[in-house]
Amino acid sequence: MNNINEYYSKRAKEYEQIYYRDDPVRQSELAKIKNLIRNSFRNKSVLEIACGTGYWTKTVTQTAKNITAVDSSAEMLEVAKAKMLKANFMLDNAYSLKNVREKFNGGLANFWFSHIHKSQINSFLDTFHKKLQTKSIVIMTDNVFNKAIGGELIKIHGNENTYKVRTLGDGTTYRILKNYYNEEELNVIFKKYSSEIKIYFGKCYWWIKYKLN
Fold first, then answer.
1. Residues 46 and 66: beta-carbon distance below 8 Å
2. Is 0.85 topped by the overall pTM?
3. Residue 54, class by beta-carbon neighbours within 10 Å (0-12 exposed, 13-18 middle, 19+ buried)?
4. I need a labelling partner for 118 at 20 to 30 A (CA). Which of 1, 100, 109, 154 fits?
5. Domain 4-146+181-211 in CATH 3.40.50.150
6. Which residues pair with 116 in a beta bridge?
7. Where are the domains of the chain?
């Protein structure tokens, strides 16, 4: 399996193309997610995991009190910092967050959950939640599985995770971890962390909002 950090580092300058596809349904769902983020994080201190190029960071800055946005790719952060947003960008590993010293009352992790090995989900969530205060609001967004989009879903015997092949603009191909979930699976995962969970499944994206116990 290819290194996902290497893939996203090399994809940094072309990453945001995915958000500008000429698809009314996709654009409508992205607009709904942005509104949810703006309304949910108003006047909050937010920790964003896997911020990438800062696409979602920009939305958070529109209403939040402040935001610390972390990513493990220096190349991604370089693109994000060039946006000159009012955000504290930080190089860090989502599974350790060792450089994050303070606590927040809002958490965001968009298009990251599908890249977590299933065996590491609870470990990641425990680490993430330790950086958040009780009753913090958390939002996550990711892709809904669509057989017609994104190429073949690769399954490997004896491996509970799934993968997809991605091709960069220069023709380089990567096989990356990409797991998909339904609403029932998400409820099972997150109910141990919250008794107030809202999940929405669109045609292109799902998103979850919950209040941390």
1. yes
2. yes
3. buried
4. 100
5. yes
6. none
7. 4-146+181-211
